[in-house]
Write a structure and sequence with these properties.
The structure is a homodimer. Chain A has 3 domains: about 160 residues, Rossmann fold (3-Layer(aba) Sandwich); about 100 residues, 6-phosphogluconate dehydrogenase C-terminal like domain (6-phosphogluconate dehydrogenase C-terminal fold); about 70 residues, ACT domain (Alpha-Beta Plaits). Chain A contains 13 helices and 12 strands. Chains A, B: Belongs to the prephenate/arogenate dehydrogenase family.
């Protein structure tokens, strides 16, 4: 959208000045838009104001757009209150979209509500963790209901652009099914895998490698927050968990019966799933290869390694650092385009790095 | 063990010249030990020999130590044949330990068998992927049975040291329970999570973030190989999958009944599990914090970033590169000791990097 046709002129009211709300506010301020801040915590509003995220909302303020960024359990009521309060367009940043919509479905101003969900976050929370860059390059679902006012949708999409997010349009129902599949159910299965480690003997856990760390990482998230999110998406999550239960029973049956073909079928379905995840930059998955480098565990060593990779003109797609056991040595896995792996390997070796594939 | 008391003088026979076997052979050759190579594939033996991993075994050779590195389904028979063939100490590198032991439990020379399992591997296979450094700093389980000859155990542990692995002593039963918990069940749950993605609409998968990529990464592994491993550890895996099924039922019940406390309890157990995984270098988990940096997706940029972090004298504990959608910009997460995060953030910002926490 060109500057000349810019519709989002403000003020923007942000209700809930936590990580997401304050980050949206900072991005609006960066674009020169006036921001009004509202929170049940006066402390949060003061902090967000001090960070330059805007000023407390005052009586008589008439926002053009309201962004509701409150915890999942309060979304519906806050969106309804925002619609009650005036004729502003209202959006939210909640992780689930059908529940809040149902709460305002019969509201006379429902056409001005357009649900949103930026796929961004942090393990930190609160306004101090906020940044105008939080959404840069991240998908931001726009889950407009069929009766939403097209102008309202356009205004919310303009907000996403201003935050440097990438609009992904889905119906509220599709959004919730999508996040059940790509976020909620993977999280719950990670929690089940991690839960088996909680009471394990310590010497058993010494065999933990990178695989179990990757599988269980998300399970470290807040049970309170995540519990609210899952509860709010109960229908979609239960549908998929029912499938998971059926597959788990099939898996248990296959292992108990020593049925190698049935076991391989479950594993093969998993392989197909990993290949279905879109690649970096939303394109098809490009084949990658790993180059491993053993490095001493000290400041500066990764700098030298990446400098060497850069000199070889190889683009690093991903990096993993293996946490080894009992030694002050790290194993760094550089994931690169398959066609560049041999060149990188030779290049690093010629510079004296201890590499292998 | 001092050089003066070195007992492992060779020759070492390696049966199965794939990734693991050839890597063990290369580590032995690096230490100046004669290596004899055996494989059903003459091609593999030729390749491994050409890599400097040793020479084909000939009639009349009398190895001091035999390392069995064949696929899971052939382990028991190969170990038995190696015990039959002479008075060498025999070890293996299989992922499961009670099954192979049962296959030789009544063998007259069973005292000379000491099972082993290095926690190392690669997504590549075959001798060309091998390297003497594969085991450096990795845990290597030694699963000696109660009747094993202490001298035989010492010899195998000397092999681990020569490969720069870290010995973790466990009974065969404990080993198998440990890998069921830390490897096999997490892998199977990752497969179940990934399996749900296989038939998902493509626009749903556009909401995939780093979480689902981490949870499902291991599920990309070979169904054939992994199926053999899981089948060989059926008892321990089934025990844990029974627990998982019980917890899954509890989870489904909690969500269906909107019982927030019961849902939070399952999630809290997962949090406890993630905290139980030992930290880097086998010590307690140190608190870490993340610093995020937005970077253009081009060769050399990570080099400059890591150089800047090195100049700030901050040790990077882990790195993640977020795969974003539709933009040629990457988000790099630097995980550092919590006490160093603010310093790193300020230091990077002063050098012009676009950072946030």
């Amino acid at each position: 959208m060109s500057e000349g046709r810019r519709e989002l002129t403000g003020p923007v009211e942000v209700i809930g000045t936590g990580l997401l709300g304050t980050s949206v506010a900072l991005a609006c301020r960066r674009a020169g838009i006036e921001v009004l801040l509202t929170d049940v915590s006066a402390d949060h509003v003061r902090t967000a104001s001090a960070l330059g995220a805007g000023r407390p909302r005052a009586d008589g303020d008439r926002p053009q757009l309201v962004v509701v960024a409150v915890p999942p359990d309060h979304l519906g009521a806050s969106i309804a209150a925002a619609l009650d309060a005036g004729d502003a367009v209202v959006t939210d940043v909640g992780s689930v979209k059908t529940g809040p919509l149902a709460a305002v479905h019969d509201h006379p101003r429902v056409r001005r509500y357009v649900g949103g969900h930026p796929m961004a976050g942090s393990e930190r929370s609160g306004p101090l963790a906020a940044t105008a860059d939080l959404f840069e390059g991240r998908p931001w679902a726009i889950a407009a209901h069929p009766d939403a006012d097209p102008d309202a949708v356009g205004l919310v999409e303009e907000l996403v652009g201003l935050c440097a997010g990438v609009v992904v349009r889905l119906s509220p129902e599709d959004h919730d099914r999508a996040v059940a599949r790509t976020s909620h159910v993977p999280h719950l299965l990670a929690s089940l895998a991690a839960g088996r480690l909680a009471d394990a003997p310590a010497d058993h856990l010494r065999l933990s490698g990178q695989g179990v760390r990757d599988v269980t990482r998300v399970a470290a998230g807040s049970p309170q927050l995540y519990g609210q999110i899952v509860a709010a998406n109960a229908a979609a999550v239960l549908g998929l968990l029912g499938e998971v239960r059926g597959e788990l029973d099939a898996l248990i049956g296959a292992i108990a019966a020593a049925d190698g073909d049935a076991l391989a079928a479950v594993l093969q379905q998993g392989v197909a799933g990993t290949l279905a995840i879109p690649g970096k930059h939303g394109g098809p998955v490009r084949p990658t290869a790993s180059v491993f480098v053993s490095v001493p565990d000290e400041p500066g060593v990764l700098a030298r390694l990446f400098l060497a990779a850069g000199e070889a003109e190889v683009n690093i797609e991903d990096v993993r650092i293996d946490h080894d056991l009992g030694r002050q040595v790290g194993l760094v896995e550089l994931i690169v385009d398959e066609s560049r792996a041999d060149h990188l390997l030779a290049s690093l070796e010629s510079r004296g790095w201890l590499t292998h594939r």
